[in-house]
Every structure is written in structure tokens, then in C-alpha cells.
Amino acid sequence: MDKLRAALLGATGMVGQRFVKLLTGHRMFELTVLAASPRSAGKRYREAAHWCVEGDVPEEVADLRVVRVGLEEVRREDEVDVVFSAIPSELAREIEPEFARAGIPVISDASAFRMEEDVPILIGEVNPDHLKLVKLQARRGWRSFIVTSPNCTTNELMIALKPLMDRFGIRRVIVSTMQALSGAGWTGVPSMAIADNVIPYIRNEEEKVEREALKILGRFDGSRIVPAELEISASCHRVNVLEGHLEAVFVELSRGADVEEVKEAMRKFRGRPQELGLPTAPENPIIVREEEDRPQPRLDRYAGGGMSIVVGRVRRDKVLENGVKFLVLGHNTIRGAAGNAILNAELAVSEGYI
Amino acid sequence: MDKLRAALLGATGMVGQRFVKLLTGHRMFELTVLAASPRSAGKRYREAAHWCVEGDVPEEVADLRVVRVGLEEVRREDEVDVVFSAIPSELAREIEPEFARAGIPVISDASAFRMEEDVPILIGEVNPDHLKLVKLQARRGWRSFIVTSPNCTTNELMIALKPLMDRFGIRRVIVSTMQALSGAGWTGVPSMAIADNVIPYIRNEEEKVEREALKILGRFDGSRIVPAELEISASCHRVNVLEGHLEAVFVELSRGADVEEVKEAMRKFRGRPQELGLPTAPENPIIVREEEDRPQPRLDRYAGGGMSIVVGRVRRDKVLENGVKFLVLGHNTIRGAAGNAILNAELAVSEGYI
Amino acid sequence: MDKLRAALLGATGMVGQRFVKLLTGHRMFELTVLAASPRSAGKRYREAAHWCVEGDVPEEVADLRVVRVGLEEVRREDEVDVVFSAIPSELAREIEPEFARAGIPVISDASAFRMEEDVPILIGEVNPDHLKLVKLQARRGWRSFIVTSPNCTTNELMIALKPLMDRFGIRRVIVSTMQALSGAGWTGVPSMAIADNVIPYIRNEEEKVEREALKILGRFDGSRIVPAELEISASCHRVNVLEGHLEAVFVELSRGADVEEVKEAMRKFRGRPQELGLPTAPENPIIVREEEDRPQPRLDRYAGGGMSIVVGRVRRDKVLENGVKFLVLGHNTIRGAAGNAILNAELAVSEGYI
Amino acid sequence: MDKLRAALLGATGMVGQRFVKLLTGHRMFELTVLAASPRSAGKRYREAAHWCVEGDVPEEVADLRVVRVGLEEVRREDEVDVVFSAIPSELAREIEPEFARAGIPVISDASAFRMEEDVPILIGEVNPDHLKLVKLQARRGWRSFIVTSPNCTTNELMIALKPLMDRFGIRRVIVSTMQALSGAGWTGVPSMAIADNVIPYIRNEEEKVEREALKILGRFDGSRIVPAELEISASCHRVNVLEGHLEAVFVELSRGADVEEVKEAMRKFRGRPQELGLPTAPENPIIVREEEDRPQPRLDRYAGGGMSIVVGRVRRDKVLENGVKFLVLGHNTIRGAAGNAILNAELAVSEGYI
Questions:
Q1: Cα–Cα distance, A207 to B79 (Å, whole number)
Q2: Core-most of B340, C253, C287, D140, by most CB within 10 Å?
Q3: Min CA distance, D199 vs chain B (Å)?
Q4: Contact indicator for B198, B205 with CB cutoff of 8 Å
Q5: Would you state the pLDDT for residue B1?
Q6: If you average pLDDT over every residue of chain C, what do you get?
Q7: How large is the ipTM?
Q8: pLDDT (tens digit per residue) in C168-217
């Protein structure tokens, strides 16, 4: 099949660079337009991006001329079939609808529309049927739609919880995070702030996790998402790690389960992306490790190309009823951002939405 | 009063060095004997210790000749009134009773005797009456006694929970830790292991926290400690921080309390060491900060000379009944080790046990 | 004597905070005005400064109301006797002369006027007689004067070289630096940039070192500074260390000297501040260590309260004629900035310039 | 051609793991025997190695049974054609000759035999003709030979200097290093030692650089290596970086050269491995970057698969006659160890020595 032509909004940032890397040589999509802030516009991508992911700027896009973020600017470059968005939320609120209205589907990593009733927060393996929600966006007078990805911290937690919810039911979740620096962007955390330190606060993060989870794990009843009936509490902290969010999770299941059952449920877990064989789908969405000291961010973040989450130290928790506790790690800018969005786009294509 | 003459076992290690620093110029105790492993024995302290705490080796002890750890070796140097112990647990099991039997009280940081029925795990502010337990050690045929300090991770958690238990009652506690490197000793964590990483496992740590807590918060009924009736679950992790254990704590209180009440209970908390005006007692055992991003290990670990714990981000937890969540930080080798032991010794002297 | 009343320009930045800390309880100066950017103006210092040096904001200044940087703004608060300046260079170029013109001496850490012919770059121990240069500033129509401090990297190098120049003569110097993060200010180096990394470039740093050195080590002939006749080449690099610049120095002396002579020259070195017993003068400007692995930034940066430099590993260099090589460490925001400036002010007072 | 069968001595260490990774799927060699310390012997490689390089243990060797380091032990497993050695130097001194005597060529990373008159310190691109030296080892009564690789710090410096020596001549070299943690092995540098710190000393490192360089850059006159007639002085320091040694180099050339000529000489530099198209030879031994802040260890260490060195900031040095200064970075366990040894083996095969 001919590749779909894609634009990337926010191409020079850290998540933007991940998009570029993951879309290079992609068999469904071809990046034909790179858009960024006015400061970058007019420069070749090679000069505009302060490249900071592994390797060098991919040759395919290195000489593309960056345009400003905007419908007209993108259109002037190419008639794209899809838009990937990695722009700040305030800007996304204004810009993304322009594309949807004009008939160009928006696959977004921004938080702007996540909590809108007719917009899915999509994780291919967890709630693929929420994609149906986009049809309701026609009521807005849009010819196409917006699909969002969850916050990076929420993402890996949802994947870990999904098989437990399906098999045992979940009543309560307590999660304490140790999050990587890249989640705050290149200049987000000064080195003076984090060297020999932990910062026990990430603005809005706990609220996002608690709010998004109920929607993602909710049920689409044909007209709306009925939120999941579990309770979730988060405490979010920044540690001195480049990439990979680690989370200590305590879960109260609806029914008793022994540790081996829990691990098996996770190991066997497959979702719609695996069924469809989507290009970015990892073979195993969840890798369960048996070592006593894993997962570790530096050693495990690239599991499954950064698209698998890694669970370890699954053990009983005796404080919660039917309690189980474990650690989960995900690559926050791949699985937790660009990779998840690309998987969403692949799913939307395969399911006929794009 | 004349100072009591003290020996220090394990004088060259990291906790040993903290003891040396805190006991320099102490108004109750004078370090007259420094004991360490055979490798160090015979050297001057200045040469034997690879000094790694702030400043230089205190002049008062720099030229003391280090002896081997052992009753005879210590006695050959001086008739000491008290022994501080910072030796490995296996060695402590063998050596500490020799001193107690010989009539020399042992104030220990080792874990060897913590769970013995007639040995207190003492935190001056939390369970000072447990000191009475040492009288039962006479049954062992000992002329003196052993007092232990809790594990560093347990210590700060106990101090934070004590005022909540007293005022509101506690049913359940979930704690997720971000622990400093010094807790593992100078060579405990290779730099290759922790750079750009978190290690989500510390051997025996979760068990220690869960076990020691119930004893420390328990009630001495005249003949034994009746364990506290709360439930506690821990997940322990090592982060790239030199000193200062940070813990995310989720608590289910026995009765509802609003956040301000919880903070006030913590702020007003004072214990026996404060009443007695003990030299190492911090003015405020608990400092509650209001900033949204504190406590931070690097900025807060030296609060109260390293003897105060610092609590922050006290907020409601909606998952647990009457739930509250917060962060707590303590200096793991001062409050969590040497400082707590010295405070124990001061308490034992003031209460007439030494 | 009554304390001199002092204003501090740039009070909220990292160097500004060091000034505040060092001037608290100072026996010559009292901080009565704190000035900072418009963003901070009007707030109490406690709120305006994102306090990041050890301990808490000193109570003496915590509630001072911050004013905008400017002559009128400062004067409206108090008739100060001296102004300390820790503002950015472009701003300094404009603001500092206003104070000098108005008769208020300016003790500056900014680079703006360093290379002006009639302005000294002053290090109390190295070139105290350069202070005479300020009299020439009367030609500008100023009623008072500006004194500058060198760049932090230059500072410690100059102190280390001074006794060698005096005793053996110096022909050539090659220096390779490993500089701390604080040198770039709180937000200067993103954590993503420096974690698991070294950045082998610091803008303008090599030029500053090479240029300032010749002036500082030069001779005041009554009308101008005759630059020193040595050659110096620097390569400057940023490493993942909070405070303390470490420099590897290779020196070609004018005559042969053995390593012990070099160390003795450094150890015996005392300057005018030591003669005068100035409050901020360290007892030993240079501490020479004999261990094979010192100086180390974390262990040695607070030597002499951060005002001593620490030299180690003095050894022969066989590539340069009469060659010697060693390492030197200085606290870049104390000796290398605020502390040096305060010492300059003390010298100016003692010598009758203020 | 059939692959040569290879044994690896020291297979579980960090350099050993690099060998394993680089030899997996190699077109000339097949690892059939993995040898390590008695502690590992008998275990499957998967269990014996605490795997710490990227990705997982390669499946090809994961289940190989590890044997003890020793000629008999290796032979009992397989009749190997070549032995790679990554064992400690003292052990190498004893073990490596046994293999050479028995007719099995030893490609070693150990320092034991580097300075022996009849043993080459070989870098394929720099001194391929030194390989001829191995014929002299027959005098020892050996049926085969030992080839060594230089110390990792020496290696990248030699590659950077070679084209300058060939084209301009070199008189003097001063080098100041910022070396990675992996150079000291997994447990070599405790995290407590290096966090927020630099350690300005690496045992024997400066001596090795200074000594090995003259031999490597020397000339084989048919019977011996005539040492190069340049002078070299090193100052070696450990920084908090996982992999990649960065070196600041100051060079006095024999004749004047402008910066562009120097960069061109480096860029055009190719060696015998490139001529022969050896599998591990990087296309460009030296990559010269033009950005003002490169090379950086984290961003550049994997250039050319870790086999290219990266040079940056080439500029004039005005202190040395015909002076030039620059930075050079190399991956210390690939180019600086395992990769260089494998390239040596490839060269020895291609040139008919194996």
C-alpha cells in the first residue's frame, strides 16, 4: 500500500524527536511535514532540532524545511493524511481542532482534549474500542477527529492493570512513582535541582493519573464512556534518571489471586495491536521479570523497542484485601508518548478510521 | 558531671564516622576507645578511617590507636562506661552480649538483637518507656544490657506516625521508599549500578520495616511488648542520592482528620528527649513544610542537625478510609542510625539506666 | 566600629544567595538593601529567593522587602556605604557606574568592567596593590569606584600560581578544567544535558581565563597594569558536580624546582588579607594535600569555609621545561565569587578606600 | 570460509560482556568456549554473567556452560583456533603464555605483556606492521603468540595523534582526561565516591599512557620497536559518566599547521583495517565534529558502533609552538578494549598470522 503522508506538530522537542525516530522507515506513514515554533520555522530540521535521542538525525528528514505550527502552514507544504501532535497543551487546544475540522485526523500526545467526553484516551492494548468514540466528534462539525494518548505515567500503569482487571477485578490502586527527567522536557529540570536529590512533586501529575485512569479503564456503552469503578491514589516524584518511569503499585483485587496467577495474567496479555500485527506493537505488551532487583530504568527501558512495559517483584500485599504489589517500568517518551500515539494511528488505519 | 567514657565498635565505617562526628565535644560522653576490624587495628584513626563525612577527622580522636573489636581489646585500652556499636549484624550477635554480660551497656545500631523479646528498639520520641524492657535482660545472666535502634527506613516512619497514632489512631500504612546510597555503606552500591538508574530492591528492608514497626509502636505491659495492631506494607527502592531517605506514605487513620489537624499534630509533637532537654534531641522532632515540592533530600536532610525528620505534601488520600498521604524525609545515617543511638544513650543516662 | 551599610544587587540568584549567607553576622557589613529583578521586587526576600544553598534563609534578611536593581530604588531604602553586585554583565555595565558616579563604591562579581584599564580585577592574596588603580577612576568623573573579582575559574588558578611566580617565575601554563554546575546558575545546565555526560565547552570561559590572568598577575607601575609575561592556554569543561571547580594545571617554571619546594611555596603562601586579619580571609589561602586522590570537589570544596583553595598531586611534568603539574580546586561561588568580593570589600575598608 | 573457533577468557566481566556482544554473529569467529573465575565455572553463561551491557544476553551463548580459565579447561571443551583474553593482568601473566606455547594465538586486552619487547601493542589503524613482532616470540619457544591492545585511554589518543604525526610531526603532547566509570569495572568505583564528585586519580593510568604511546607510535626496524621521539604528559581523572573517555589534548606539532589542515588530516585518515574491509573496522576511524560543544560522552560514544573516535573543538594553542588543542572521545570498552582486540584478531587473520 502507498504510505500515508503525515505531518508532525512539535517536531523539534524531545517527544517530537522520538516521533521522528520511530516514523523513520515506518511502513504505513511517511513524514512529509515537520512543524515547530516560529523560532525553528524556516530552518532545516537538522539545524532546528537540538537532537538528543540516540544516534544522529535521520537522513530522510534532516534537510526538511521546518514550518510553523498551523493548518495553513502545513497545507502549504503537503496534503497530509494524518497529523501527529506533540505540542504544548494550550497550543493544542487551539490548533488541533483546526485540523480535525478540515478533515485531517489528529493523533495527539497533548493533554488538551483528553478529558473531553467524545475524545478517547487510547491505548491500543487496553481500550481499542474507545476508538469508536471519535464518531461522536462529528457533532462538533468536524470532518475528522482527535485521538489522544494518556499521560506517560498513566500509560504504563493502565497496561499493567488491564489484565488484572479483566481476570480478577480491581477495587483500589495506590501508586508511588519514580519518574525520569525527560518527562519534563529538555530544560524542564535544572541539573542543580536534581543532582544528589529527588523532587517529590510533579505539577498536575497525580491528578492526571487519577482522572485519566478511570476513563481509560471505563466501558464505552455506545454513547459515552462509563468510568471504571475503582479508586486510585498517586504520589508522583522525580528522580535522577534520563528515561523510564518506575512505579511502585499496590492493588486491591476484587477476588483473591496468588502471585503466580497474577504474573501469568500479565505474561499472557495480548491486545488488539498484537492480533492485528501492527508495526509498532511489541510482541509482549508486558514482560514479567523474575529477578529480585528488576525492572531497572537503565537496563529495561528499551524492552520491546521501548514499547513493552516491564513488571517485576510481583508479591502479595497483606495490607489491602486480596492485595498484590509490584513494580512497573515503561519508557516514558516511547511507550508513554510518541510510540503509543503511533500505535494509535496504526490502529485507526487498520480499523478503517483513517 | 564527669563525662562517661565510651568505646565505639565499628569506628571506621560510615555510621562509625557519624558516631565519631556527633560524639566530638559531646557533653555527656567521651570517646576513649575506637575499635574496628583487624585490618584497621594498630593504625591511628586518621589512617584507618577513609574519612567521608563533612570536614576532616576530628582532632580529638585523629591519633587514637584503633583496636580490634572485642571485650578484652577494649578493656585493655580503658574501663569504659558504655559501648556504641556500629558493627555488622553477624558480628554483633557474638560480640555485643560479651559487653552486656561484663556489665557494660551496649547502645547498638546493629539489627542482631532488635527482635529479641527483652530488647527494645528504641526511639527516644516514640517509645521511651520500652527502655524498661532492659531490666528483663538480667534473666540472661547479664550485668548490663543491650538497647537497639531501628532500621533507618523504619525510624523516620515511626516518628512521623507516632503523633497520628496518638491522636487519630492508625489502621493501615502503605509506604514506598526512595533510599539513599549511604544506607548500603561506602562500597554497597557500585556507581555503574545506579548511574542513570533506580534499583527497586533492598535486601530484607521491607521485612525489617514491617516487623520492627509493630514492635516499636507496641505497648509495654510490664512484662512484654504487645505489638501494635496496625498493618503495614512497604516497597523499598534505592535512588541516586548520597544521604537522606525519602518515603511516600499512605495512611488509613482510625477516625477522620482533616489535613490541617494532621499537620498540627505533627508540628506540636514533642517527646521525652525534648522534655529532658537531651543534648542530641532536636527542638522539633518533626518539621512540616508547606512548599509544594518539599522535603527534598539534598535540601532538607540536615534539618535539626540531621535529627529532625521533615514532612511535606500532607494531603487527603481518597482510596483509604480516613486516608491521608504525605512525604517524609530523614537523614539515614544521623537520625536513622548514629544520632538515634546517641539519643538513646542520653536517655538511658538521664533515666538512670547508665 | 559601626557596621557599614550595604546593598546587594542580584540578591536572589545563586551568587546572590552566597553573598547573603556570607554577610549574615559579618562584623564589618550589614545588608540593609536587597535588590533583584522586577519579578522579585516587592516580595519579601524569603519568597523572592528560591533558596538553594545550605540551611534556610537567614532570619536577619528573610523579611526584607526586595527592591528593583537601580540607584534610585536602592537609595529610597537606605543610604548605603557600599554596594555588592552579582548581576548579569550587560546590566552591570549600565547600573554599576551609576553607583560609582554617585559616590557609592561597587564591589562587583560581574565581568562587565574587568578588562577596563582603570578597574582592578582583585584577589586579596594575589594583587592587593592593584586596588590603587581605582584612584584613576576619578578621571571618569566618578566620586567612588568599581572593583571587580575574576571569573571563578581564573580565581583559584591565580592563587595557586602566585607563590610559584614569586619564587620560581612562570613561563607557560596549560590548564584543563572540570567545572561545577553552579557556575552556570540555577537553570544554566539542564539535567538532561549533563546526566551521564560531560559538556566540553563553556561559552567565553577559556578567553576569560587567558585574558584575566595576565592582568591579575601583572604589575601596577603607578599609572597602569603591565601585563604579566607568561603564556596561558585553557580548555574548559562542565562535569556533573554541584559546586567546586577542579583544574588540572601544567606549569613551565622559569627555573628548576623540585616538587617539595613547590609544595612548600604554596603552603607558606600568605597574602595581605592574612596580614590584616580580614574576617573572610582563610588562615591558609592554599591547602596542599598529600593523598594520591585529592582534591575532590565534594570533599574539599568547603576547606577554609570555602575560601581556601586545595592543591594536590603536585608532581614533575617532564614535557615542559622545569615542568610541574598539579590539581587545584576552589569553591566557585564562594572563593570564586561572593567570598572573593567580600574579601575585596574588607581589604578596601582596611586600606582606607571605603 | 568456516568460522574460526574462539575461546573467551574473562567472559563474565564488563569487557568480557562487550566481547560477547561484539562476537555474536561475527562472520570470522564463533565463540565456543567461555571461561571465567571458579565462582562462575559450571554455571550457564546466562546465570554466571551479571549482564550489564545493552539488551539481553545473546541467545547464541546464553546456555553455554562456563569453564574455569585455563588451558586444559578450555581444551576439554573445544579445539579453539584463537583465544580472546579479558582477564586481570596478574592472571594473564601466568595463563596467556600457556596458550601461546600450546600453539593457540592469544588476542589480549590485559596489560601483562604490553611492554615486553617482542609483543606488539596493536591498533589496526595506527601500527599494523607491529604485528610482525610476534614472529620474534618463537624465541620464547612458543608455537603461537600474544598480541595486546593498549590501555583504553592510550588507544583513542593514539588514533587521534597518528594522522598528525604522519603529516606534521609531533614534538610534545599534554593530555588531561575525564574518564568513565566502566574503565574501573562494575564494582571499581563506589557510587558514594563519585556522586557529586570527580576523583582526580586513576592508579597507574598516567604511567601507562606515557609509556605505551612511545611504543605504539614507534617504528619497527625489523628486529625491535624504536620508540617514537615525542614527549607526552598525562593527568588522569574519573568523572561520573558510564561509558566514554573524554580527553583534552594539547599538541606541539613539528611544523606549523592551520586548524583546517589538522581537521582534514584527521577526517581523511584511514588505516589497514579500512583497506582490508575488516568486519569491525569503522568506516571512519576519526569523526571530526564542528559543533562548539562536542564530543560529549553520552551522545557520541556509539559513533561507528563504538569503534570510531570523535574529535571536536580543534583550535590553535598559542602556548605550545605550532600548537593545536582539541577534545577526543572514544568508547572505552569497545574501541578502548574488546572492539580493538577483535579488530586485531581480524587483522591477524587477514594478514595470515592466524
A1: 61
A2: B340
A3: 13
A4: no
A5: 63
A6: 97
A7: 0.96
A8: 999 999 999 999 999 999 999 999 999 999 999 999 999 999 999 999 99
Q: Cell for B1?
A: 558531671
CB B126 within 8 A of CB B120: no
Residue C47 dihedral angles phi and psi, to the nearest 5°: -85, -35
Nearest-angstrom CA–CA distance, A30 and A81: 10
Q: Which residues contact D324 (CB under 8 A, 6 or more apart)?
A: D164, D250, D251, D253, D257, D259, D262, D314, D315, D316, D317
Tell me: pLDDT of C1 over 80. Answer: no
What residue has cell string 580522636?
B61
| Nearest partner of D45 among D58, D54, D55, judged by Cα | D58
List alpha helices for D50-178, DSSP H: 59-62, 71-77, 89-101, 152-167
Q: What angle do CA B287, B289, B295 make, to 5 degrees?
A: 90
CA C108 to chain centre: 9
Relative to beta strand B146-148, strand B106-108 is: parallel
- What is the 8-class DSSP label of residue D272? H
Distance, C-alpha A244 to centroid of its chain: 13
Number of H helices, E strands in chain B: 12, 14
Contact between A192 and C189 using a beta-carbon 8 Å cutoff: yes
3-state secondary structure A165-209: HHHCCEEEEEEEEEECHHHHCCCCCEHHHHCCCCECCCCCHHHHH
Q: How confident is the model at residue D54 (pLDDT cuts 50, 70, 90)?
A: confident
Amino acid, res. A345: A
What pLDDT, in 10s, does the model give residues D303-323? 999 999 999 999 999 999 999
Assigned C-alpha cell, A162: 488491564
Residue B245 designated active-site: yes
CB D321 within 8 A of CB D252: yes
Q: Name all domains of chain B by residue range, CATH numbers in brackets.
A: 4-151+338-350 (3.40.50.720), 152-331 (3.30.360.10)
**pLDDT value at position D335?**
98
Q: Mean pLDDT by 10-residue block, N- to C-terminus, for chain A (354 residues)?
A: 93 96 96 96 94 88 96 96 97 98 98 97 98 97 98 98 98 98 95 98 97 97 95 98 98 97 98 98 98 96 97 97 98 98 98 96
Say which of A130, A236, A245, A331 is annotated catalytic.
A245
What cell was used for C210?
587567558
Which residues of chain B approach chain A closer than 8 Å at the C-beta? Answer: 172-174, 176, 178, 195-201, 231-233, 235, 237, 239-242, 246, 248, 250, 292-299, 312-313, 317-320, 323, 325, 327
pLDDT reading at D78 higher than 70: yes
Half-sphere exposure of B165 (CA within 13 A, CB side): 21
C-alpha distance from B203 to closest chain D C-alpha (Å): 17
Q: Which of C77, C22, C84, C20 is nearest to C48 (CA)?
A: C20
Element (H, E) at B73: helix B71-77
User: 571569573: which residue's cell?
Assistant: C151
Return all residues near A60 (Cβ < 8 A) that are at least 6 apart.
Answer: A24, A25, A31
Report the C-alpha gap between A255 and A321 in whole angstroms: 9
Largest CA distance in chain D: 61
Among B274-283, C51-60, D19-28, D330-339, the minimum mean pLDDT is found in: C51-60
CA torsion, points B109, B113, B119, B124, in degrees to nearest 10? 20
Helix then strand then coil, in percent of chain C rounded to 5, is 35, 25, 40
How does pLDDT run across B187-226, given as a tens digit for each residue? 999 999 999 999 999 999 999 999 999 999 999 999 999 9
Q: What are phi and psi of C163, to 5 degrees?
A: -65, -30
User: Which residues of D participate in catalysis according to the annotation?
Assistant: 152, 245
Question: Residue B270's CB: how many other CB atoms inside 10 A?
Answer: 15
The cell for B351 is: 533515666
- pLDDT number for residue D1: 62
Query: C219-220 and C225-226 as β-strands: parallel, antiparallel, unpaired?
Result: antiparallel
